[in-house]
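Thread: "does anyone have the structure for this chain?"

Original post by V.I.:
We have the sequence but no experimental structure in hand. Need at least a predicted one for the grant figures.
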Amino acid sequence: MPARRAFAATASLAAAALALTGCSLLPGTDGDTDSPPAGADRFYTQTLSWNNEGDLLDSTTVEVPLDWSDPDGATIEIAVMRHKATESSLGSLLMNPGGPGGSGYDYVRDYAEYLVTPDVLANFDLIGFDPRGVNHSNPVTCYTDSGDRDEYLYGTYDEGYGTEGWVEDLTQREKDYAAACAENTGPLLAHIDAGSVARDMDVIRAVLGDEKINYLGYSYGTYLGTVYAELFPDKVGRMVLDGAVDPTVSDLDALATQMAGFESALRAYMDDCQANDSNCPFSGGTDAGMQQVRQLLEGVDAQHLVASDGRVLDSATVGTGLAYNLYSDSYWPDLTQMFNDLYAHDPESSFANADGYNGRNSDGSYADNSSDVYAAVTCAEGDLGTDSVDTLGGVAVLQAKAPTIGDFFGYDDTFVLDALCSNWPYPVAELPTEFDAAGAAPIIVIGTTNDPATPYANAVSLSKQLESGVLISYEGEGHTIYAQGVTCVDDAVDAYFIEGTVPAEDPKC
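Reply from O.Q.:
Generated one for you, tokens below.
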């Protein structure tokens, strides 16, 4: 499941923790971060033209090389949205909401006043950007017809999930999808990795006039920040990584750990549902309730439930809808409604929740290309296509970690990615394999103890890997926590951003 920032608060933004292959940095990275890479001077000295968007907002585009190993070659444009500080600015605060596939441009344009505390909003220019491949920047494009996207994301199979026949059908479907991505995206598809994005971020820093980068990243956005810090440690200013990805864990292990996180979140939901919700359809305690969920999911495919728009509900789509509502305990009432509807043989809310996850609008159109970017970047950066575990072996791994829901979540995610990345038309990018960011200023890493999408262990691990990592722990539910009203977390982060004060120890909020 993508580790996405607070779902719809960022248009379903984030990704599974990705392992990296390759042993060298991108061409041109030689440790000298005081000057642009060879041949890239013109990008670092370009003049920006800003468009007034109203309400303290303006936008621009930043030109960068398509291929950072060939700065004299083709170029692309990165879309940038700025919300100006409401008072005197201390500088820029670059932001990424997660994904891969989340639009930082839309994030800042639509939600600026909710993304940070009022004090940070007053003191920093918030800078949202769409990483290469995303939405307003040169986009990854796979299927261009909404009907084809529907069939890809929601289509059912002739053979049952978990069978050899299903694997064969899935493999052919992913070969067709990969071919469409290559044909409709073109050369960009070979250059959408985090190393390329980090270099784009450094150009954005420079052309905004900032000596060092201030950065706030959520979920997959923490990975972008980590890669930036590794490539440009001397350019790190004040960096906060909330809902951390551990970049050293293999894809399958990371996804399995994430499934365990969702299983834990479902147990927390089950406790609350039976104790506090009169509409709860489950009974008999937490373990009994989890068994009832399993039985409900196992029975979905045989029912052949048809929605009002003609789509047929299967257990994979239910798994996606379930995941959508486990990112935050504020969504638990919607999850209860979805379960009750399933017991009543009504598929509509399951589709509505899966649509929210996939960015599908009520008219059948799609809000953005986040699902395409998520798939493409996973294959560009991770090892699902090159590890030694086949699709059916992956099913067993996920079920071992999350016996109630792991396989159902994976049918539209992990196993799809495994088949896709095994047939991806480009090799995995060369990226850093160590993440100490030696010499960087202090980097704050925030972890929530029952975060379903980026489990707390990720934050602990990343904070230890980073030479200057500082951990802030929050005991609670949900995916990411800064600027959500938890005073202990907000005060510590604000003091760091505004005053440069680093917590002496983990405040354990």
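V.I.: this helps a lot. The radius of gyration is 22 Å.
O.Q.: and Residues 316 and 412 are 6 Å apart (CA to CA).
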